[in-house]
Structures are given as C-alpha cells and as structure tokens.
User: Fold this.
Amino acid sequence: MGNPSHPPATLAAMDQPRVGETVGRVLGTEDATPLEFWVAVDGNEYIQLDDVIALERKLPNGETIDMYGVVSQVRARHEGARFDSDVFLIEDGILPADVSEAAMVTATRFEPEMFVPPRPGQEVRRAAGEERDRALFFDRMERRLPVGLTRDDEPLYANYEFFNGERGAHVNISGVSGVATKTTYATYLLHALFNGKVLGSGSVNTKALIFNVKGEDLLHLDRDNSTLDDEQRARYEKLGLPAEPFRSVEFFAPVRPDSSTLRADVHTRSDVTAFAWSLADFCHDDLLPFLFADAEDDRAQYTMVVYSVMAQLKRASALESGAVRIEGTDVRTFRELADLINQKVLSEDDGPVWAGTAIARGTINAFVRRLASSVRHVERLIRGDMDDPERHRVSLQSQVTVVDLHNLNDRAKRFVVGVTTRRAFESKEREGKGSDDDLLMIVLDELNKYAPREGFSPIKEILLDIAERGRSLGVILIGAQQTASEVERRIIANSSIRVVGRLDSAEAGREEYGFLPRTHRQRATILKPGTMLVSQPELPIPLVVEFPFPAWATRPSEVAGSLSDGPEDPFEGL
Assistant:
C-alpha cells in the first residue's frame, strides 16, 4: 500500500538527484528578477516542481548574497524547431535540434536581504540540509509543527507561533468533499501537535473539541488502524511522530430517538456517552436562539420575539429530573414547552409580555411556525426526564472530545454546535489563558453552514468572536469547508494557516484563493487524496505536502480484528 501521490515508479530507475551539486545555470534568454527567474537544467540532471534550490551572487563590493527559491514551473522544448511538425523530422534525425529544459524559480529568501536578481550563467544547486531549512525559513522557527512530507519524504514544517496565537492563530482547510481529505488532515494536525515536540509538558492542558458530521468515522480515533503498513509507519518516523492512535479520547453522541434509557445513537461502539440538555438548562442558559440559527434569520423580524420569549423562560423554576415550572404549569418534555410558548405568545392577555410590544401578528405567527417545526428535530436533545443531567453534558475532560452529529437534522446540528461551542468558549474566557500551550482547539467541518458569508446567526457571532478574539484566550478554530467563497470573510482572513486540498476548477478561480500562485491553483484541481497545499505567513509560496495514512481507524472496517481488507488506495473515501 503506497501513497498514490509519490513520483512515478519510472523515476526510481533513474539516478537519484545529487543534492547539493549543480543542476543548472540561471537562464540568460529570460528576464531574471529578485522575485522570479528561470534556470536552464543540465542535460544530465532534472528539476521537478517543488524542488528547493540555492545559489549565490557576489556583488561588486565583494559581499555575497545567498539566494534561495522553490521551483514553481518546469518546461521542455526543442531548440531550433520552427513548426509543430518539426518534431517528427527532429526525431527522425532529419532536422538538427536539441531538447532544452528550464525551470521557473520563485524566490523565497535572500541573506542578507538585498533584493538583487541573479546573474545569467550563475550555477544553481539543489538545496538540502541546512540550506533547505534556510530556504523555507525552518531555521527561524523555534517551535516547528510537522505539517507533512515532500514527495521524497523530507519533513515540512509550519511555525507553531502562527498556530497557538502568539503571532497568529486558526487554520482553515478547503477542498472537495470526499476527495480533499479535509477532516483527515485536521486530525493529522492534532496528532502532530499532541505527539510532536512543540508542546512538551504543555500537552496536558491542550484539548481538542471535534464535531463529527459524516458517519461514525471519527468514533474510532483511539483504535489502531489495521490497514497501516510498514511504508506508512516509516513516514511517521520521518516526521518524528509515533504511528499510533489518539490516547486520550472521549466520545459523545445524541440520545436515540424515543429512548427512555438515554442511550447514545451509535451503532459501532457501546462506550459512547449520550448527550442532551435538560429543560432547566434550556430555559436558564438562554439556548432558545440556537433553534433559530439559519442564515435567513438575519432577514426575519421574529428575532425580536425570540429574545422576548427567552427573557420569560429565564424565570422558570427547576423541578426534579430537569423539568421546569413556568407560571404555575409543569413542563416535562420539549413538545410541552413549545406548546406553552406558542400559547403564551398567541394569547391576547400574555402576548404583549411574551412576544413583546408592538409586534405584528404575522411576525408572531412566523415565530410559532419555526418553533413548532423544530420540535421533532430537537425534542430528544432537550428533556425533562434526566435523573443526572450533568452526566449527559458534553465535557472536555479528555485530551480529545468527539461530538457526533451525523444522525441529526441540520437544525439540530446547528443547535448542538452553537450551544457546545458557546459553552466551551465561555468556559475558556472564565479560566483565561494560562500559557501559550493552554489551548482549546475547535474542529468544525462544513463551516459554510455555521458561518455563511451572508446573513447573521448566534452561531456565526460566536465563530466570529473566536476568529477575532480567540487567539488571546487560547481558543483555536480549525475550520473546514468545500468552498471558502461561501464562508464569512473575516473568519477566513483571521486564519494564519490556510490549507487547500483538491478543488473544483470554478472554486479555484475565486478571489479567496488569491494566496495561491497561478500554477498552484491549477495543481489544486488535480491533487490526489493525501496531498495538500499549506500556506503560512513566513513563506511567500505554499508548501506542497503529503501526510501519512492515519494510524487511527477512520471507519469500523479498519479497526484491528475487522474482516475487511480495507481500501486498495489508502486515502480512498477519507
């Protein structure tokens, strides 16, 4: 089982590139600038995309400038041919011509910083070791987070200071669903963080909250992947990471529909905690707005009714098992609560108190319809029959907490994401940030649903607050979506590290991907699973990285002891 994005097997038969030796000279027939120049490739060598190169230029005053860059394009052509059909005559030996190869290099670093162009004819070599680290600014990274490998299995890094909030924060991942492996890469980053060298003893206080929206794939992070082979294990070793699953994980899933025993709605394991909220929590913690978290709420007038009703629910008295008493009426199910609210806002006597003054009847009716339509989706999550409500509350006691949402309707998903994220964020606000490693990472896929570009909602408000203020509190958002063009701009703009997997060609042309050079946008449309483009502030161009196949099971069939042989392509379907 090999990584499908490795170089073709035919290269294995060629001589290995002689790292550090001359591979070509700066081309004299193309303009050379401090930002970009071309290199003529020696006939006995080859240069490929993403190779790191180095050269020096000696100035008239005797000072030497070390120049570094990354190959962003490679071309080959016949010299001496005039017409397209000449290729046949040249190959038959009738016309004289030579094949020339040239590589376009995007400059990454000058030491010292004197931005002069290289001179035509200067020798260019393939960088390695310390030179490669200087070219990619790895030597300036005091704490390096391994973000993946090159095609020849050399480790690549991101500056941890742009992850933990010290100089920047947040990660945004874009890519086509089912092909870009967005969630898999997000969990790889967590694995690299928890098991690498950047945290050290601080890993005890660093936690991750993951919302699982697709199947039960993330409910096996603590189990070995039976399909992991020795080649992939060796790639973890190259990164300085153990090829093992997550060690400290707790799983939560919604209560099963019509379940009086409060069992989790999960089929592939039995040790998952069922989560729900009591009616008392719903009333006293102001959770009503999260039932109206659709993007269209920004255009709806009934938002005023929502907050008026919320103020009245705050006065409810708590009863046993999480039930409540509201103005003398005992309420033990969410359906009963919704009926009571509807009765109060529609009543001629209570309406002005519960719905607010000067509210049109049409606005109240819109509120009633939306509340009534939410009952069947969330009534299993908001209950008055919980002997120990605290036991069914999503807690962040383990290093990684997975909250499963895949069996919920979109409205219920928004409710769970909004309420859980707000509670985690407020808890972090109260505790404060003890150190740069005292982090809470929130991993959320389908970010465009919860923070869409247009409209407004309580969830979007929380996510914006995290994006703009979270770094000072140690709250890091790792968001993923198919289309960054549909996500609130300020969330994308506040993400220091941006990752792109396979993109749709139309999406790749959007302005949100302006940080990608033109050649990288083209490559994004053909990237294979397991290959990502990683952009970070210190590097002028994105890194093309491959990450190893997960060492943790990503589906029930991969759990050790399964009868399944697993997929032939290690990244298929992730």
In short: Residues 1-18, 563-568 have pLDDT under 50 and may be disordered. The CA atoms of residues 85 and 510 lie 38 Å apart.
